[in-house]
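A reminder before we start the practical. When you read a complex entry, don't treat the lines as separate problems. The point of joint prediction is that each chain is placed relative to the others, so the output describes one connected object in space. Small molecules and nucleic acid strands, if listed, are placed in the same frame. In the example below there are two entries. Take a minute to note the order of the lines before looking further.
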Amino acid sequence: MATLQFKIYRYDPDKDEKPYMEEVTVERDETDRKLLDVLVKLKYKDDTIAFRRSCREGVCGSDAMNINGKNGLACLADIDDLKQPIVLRPLPGLPVIRDLIVDMTQFFKQYHSIKPYLINNDHPPERERLQSPEDREELNGLYECILCACCSTTCPSFWWNPDKFVGPAGLLAAYRFIADTRDEATNERLDNLDDPYRLFRCHTIMSCVDACPKGLNPTKAIGKIKDLMVRRLI
Amino acid sequence: MVKRIVVGAHYGLVDWLAQRITALVMLAYTLILVVSLLAGPAPSQESWRTLMSGTGMRYASFLCILSLCYHAWVGVRDIWMDYVQPVGIRLLMHTLTLMALIGYAGWTTQILWRL
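Here is the predicted structure of the whole assembly.
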């Protein structure tokens, strides 16, 4: 059994005047492999600490947090890879509700603004709308996004203009529907993004790519949106 | 006035594209300058004057100055958009930047064309 050292961001707006970093130690069992395993153990020890988690296998995106300065999912972070003391902070750029829990309203507002659903006014077929394997291939690397917000909250452009810039997660989702051959609203979707704030706050620093725990590439998707816009213009 | 967040200015693409094209123009001009200097006689006031006063070079210099100013306009405007949140101050910064860049463009052209 080894002892793990943590520095955890604590803030309870009902009690604390301002946030502070708490130093905590946790005994690690041999079966504890991921950061979330230890956090759950910590929660038993001190039930005042607040964080979100659900599926614990990198699918729900609930336990996104800033781990040693980099956004990631606690359930996917190997403890052996983390330098101690393990510094945990809430996702940057979003208002903190309590401890490691952030208010994701702004993030989801931007996601909803790109109309993240198929728009097709044709009469629905008997079974399903079909695609060729090649067309379906284009959606790989796009549909897998779990909306954990690791990418958008590591993007400085999203920090400065979260109310106007769609952010990498929203733009990845936007391209997912632009690229979908079953969708009929491509022009409207491009019109919706042709704006110096909504799309063009992206300065291609690729911080989102570095942070994505699912290995997706929002920068590439953003590039493809710009490419389509240029082709439409020229 | 209602306080709503309004977006949808429909001009982002042209500026983004222009920034890339102007970068290529500046790169081409730099290469022309470097090649002309390396291939020509030893650098002197006279060789510079001969190089810069040719019609082709005047045209290229003017194009490069315009490209530099447009490129700088988009870049500096981006900085104001990122960091300056009050709309009134941002408008002021945009205006001052434009005025400065237009002035620089005229001034630089005047200097280079009188050679």
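Discuss with your neighbour: Residues 218-233 of chain A form the longest helix (16 residues). What might explain this?
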